[in-house]
Each structure stands twice: as structure tokens, then as C-alpha cells.
Write a structure and sequence with these properties.
The structure holds two protein chains of two kinds. Chain A contains nine helices and 16 strands. By secondary structure, chain A is α/β, with parallel strands linked by helices. Chain B is built from four helices and two strands, in the order H-H-H-E-E-H. Chain B has a two-stranded antiparallel sheet with strand order 1-2. In chain B, 9% of the residues are buried. Classes of the chains: A alpha/beta, B alpha+beta. Chains A and B meet through helix 8 and helix 9 of A and helix 3 of B.
Amino acid sequence: MNEPGRNKNFIYHTAGVCPPEIHFRIAGETVTDVRFVGGGCPGNAELVSRLINKQPVKEILPLLDGIDCRNNTSCPQELSKALTAAMGGRLSPADSFRLATDPKPRKSIAFIGELGGNCRALKEVIKTAEKKGIEAIYCLGNLTGFDSSNRAVMQSIRKHNIRAIQGEQDWKCAQKAKAANQSSVGARDRDRLAQLPQVIRFTVAGKCGVAFFGDYLQRLPDYSDYEPFSLEMNMVCGLTDFMRDESVFPALEAMTSQFEADIIVFSQPRRWGYWLVGGRHFISLGPAMDAEQLSWGLLQATGDGLGFRIEKQR
Amino acid sequence: MAESVKVLPKDIQQMIDVYEWDMRTREGVQRFRELKAKSLPSVALDDELMYESLIPMQEELIAEIQRRYREKNQEN
């Protein structure tokens, strides 16, 4: 059973309706922050969300039940199933961050840091990566920004099957935060941003890697220090201030034996850097565009192990 | 390092309160940075970083605890 008084986030995977996911939060006996993600009618979904926000689950279930839209179900019906499962303990709370795993071991990966909605930069990297036979492209965020081509960025990411994770601004934008300034991001793209993973696990040259944006993950509700790769994040973000404080590297080195990842990639500081500490590779990604120069990182298997270099294009 | 504190004689244990921070946690890292420590393991006495990387001899640790205990009791 759902423990009374506990706040927990849930993600329910629907069946037979337009939105593939419903996100919500249970606080004791009430539901908050309901969001139908990835499809359907955003206006109606928003209305439903507002009407039932902070209402006791048992009071809203009769309103949601028995509504038929398509495939013998509907968004309200799916929400009813989700809430019933969550309250009954059959739906586990969501992890505090979304972790995706690239199932294919790679020989080479192109890493893009802050894109900020610059589709031209993204297209250039795609073109070069294809030409060089690079196996995969990862975008670590922020994907969106003040540039007006946010929509084109999101389209390119889908079209070219690029593995993208949320940066902090992407996350804020997905949450519809008023502070986010990505005004050109529409409702559909905000949903797509919300569905993106926040951490990616990968394998290159037989080594396990993890890529994430930065320390906003540690401020997410329900974040735990014991989630997969939390130690790596804590050491990068908390202990070393994104590897800027080299005086604590002895402590970092002592902790690396407990790491799951051999390669740790992050992009929050918006500056390029590469460190080898305790046999682990730490990579900081700079912005994709800096003073009209396009920059991205290439991680690849080499004859004697692993190599990383920054590719620059005018 | 925590073990070296835990195995102190009973009369010394009664003079001190022992806190152990887990460096895997954000709280542990915050405490580490507050103490301006650089290496692991580290031991602080009265918020003062005393031992880093090395485990002190038990006699040395006991002498330092007793010294501080005496100082505090003289003050009071």
C-alpha cells in the first residue's frame, strides 16, 4: 500500500490511448501534478490535471472510471488505473531520475554539450559524424535555449536517432517553469523533453560510461544518494565542484574504487576538460558553439584502450 | 579510520562523541568540504582536521583527546 504522508512520483505507461505516459505525484491520500505526456489533447489534459490537483484519490476515482474514448479505454480511465495501482502498491514509485542504457557496445561516440537550440550546430555534427563513421551521437543538454530553432533541434534528434538527455533548462522547460525562457518550445516538444532520460549508461571500448548534465539531478524530489551512479555524480558535482577543485583529487581517487562507471561525462560547467583520476576518465563538455566555432567531443576505442579528443570546426 | 576511534578504551570513549560521515552521501561530502579535508580517511577533533590519509597511532590519538579534554575542563 502507498504509505500515508509520503510524497512520491509515479510514471504510468498507458495502453490504448494517445499519451504513452502519465506522470503524477501522490502526497498521502491526494494526487498532485498529473500530466499526460507525449500525445493526446494537451488542453483537455491540462484541464483534467487542474481540476483534480490536490484532491483525495478516492474522491476522484468515481469521476475517472467508465469513460470510453478509444480501444475501450480513455485518458481518464488510464489515470484511474494508474492511481489505483499506485495506492494499492502495484505501481512502484519512479526513480528520482530517468536512467537510459544504450544497449549497443560502441567503438566511438560523439558528445555534444550545450546546444541551446542551435540546430545548425547539431546538423554540422551529424554530418561530420556520418562522414567519419562515428557510431553514436549523444547530446547532454541543454538541448533547448534562446535560439529560435528549438523545434528543429527536437526534430533532428528524433530523425537521426540521437541519444539526448535533459539539461537543467530542458528539465525546467519540460516542467513548464515560468523562469524557463525557451518560449519557442511548444507543448509537444515540452512533452518530448519530459520523456527524455536524464542519465545515460553506455559502453565504449569495453568500459562502462555514464553521462549526465549536472547537479540539478541532486535537487530532484526523492533523489537518493544510493541510486545507480549517484556516487559518481556526488563526487563530480559535490566533492570536486565539477573537477575544478584539484586539491580534493586524492579523496576522489580513494572513492573511485567504488564507482560503477569507468568514464564519467558531464556538461554543466560549459567548459572542456579531461582528467584521468584513479583509472577513471572524467570528461567535461564545453558548449557546442563558442565564438562561432563548433566544438564536440569524440570518445573512441584506440589500439591501447580509450581516447578522447575535442573536434573543432569553423 | 572509524575503527581506530571505535576501538579506543572505554574511559576515552566516555570523553568523546563520535560522528562518522559517509562520503557516498551529499551530507558526507558537505562535511568533508566544511573541514577543508583533501584526502580520505580523515579525522577531525572539535571541528579541527587532525589526521588525513594516515591512521594515527592509538597512543597519539588518546593523548590528543586527553589534552583537549583537560583544556576544556580547565576552561569550565
